[in-house]
Design a protein that fits this description.
mainly alpha, 83% helix, 0% strand
Length: 176
């Protein structure tokens, strides 16, 4: 299970890093924050395609064509953790080293959107809540943990769906 998880986890890592680089360097500079957010989540989901492929490989090539629900969950979770950590590191490098003004610009944009869409009597309360949430993202450790968890949770969703689709019980021995 571990070699399969590592191999497909590395494939997922390659996919998420390449797609994220395309997103950050080519799509994001020319797109709105809303389009960029959709592209970011699409990148996460596409990289998780390797969870399905890895679980299927484990079932067919390693486990003799059989897959229990627990085996599928273990394999998928192990595959998911590799690109999740890689994305956390990539996002941290992007926001702290490559483009350190990105978080501030995004937070300014989001605050302006809140001002446009929130009623004047609720604005102070909404902005205070937003500022406290924004402070969490300004902490590099929290940013890493949140981005890693986001990708991992998406990976777990894909894992559950893939496991249900690929599950095959061992045939019961024929009675004589």
């Amino acid at each position: 299970m571990k070699p399969t998880a590592l191999r497909y986890g590395l494939y997922g890592t390659l996919a998420i890093v390449v797609l994220s680089a395309i997103h950050f360097f080519f799509i994001f500079p020319n797109a709105s924050y809303n389009v960029s957010e959709v592209a970011g989540y699409l990148t996460m989901f596409l990289s998780m395609f390797f969870v399905f492929l890895g679980i299927r490989y484990y079932r067919d090539q390693v486990n003799g064509g059989h897959l229990s629900f627990v085996q599928g969950l273990k394999t998928g979770a192990l595959i998911s953790v590799v690109p999740a950590i890689a994305f956390g590191i990539f996002d941290l490098l992007y926001t702290q080293v490559i483009n350190p003004t990105w978080l501030k610009k995004y937070q300014d944009y989001y605050a302006a959107e809140l001002k446009k869409t929130t009623s004047p009597e609720k604005l102070d309360e909404v902005l205070k809540k937003f500022e406290s949430e924004a402070a969490v993202f300004n902490n590099p450790v929290m940013l890493f943990l949140i981005m890693t968890a986001t990708v991992f949770i998406i990976g777990l969703i894909v894992t559950i769906i893939s496991t249900v689709a690929l599950k095959r019980n061992k045939p019961k021995p024929a009675m004589a």
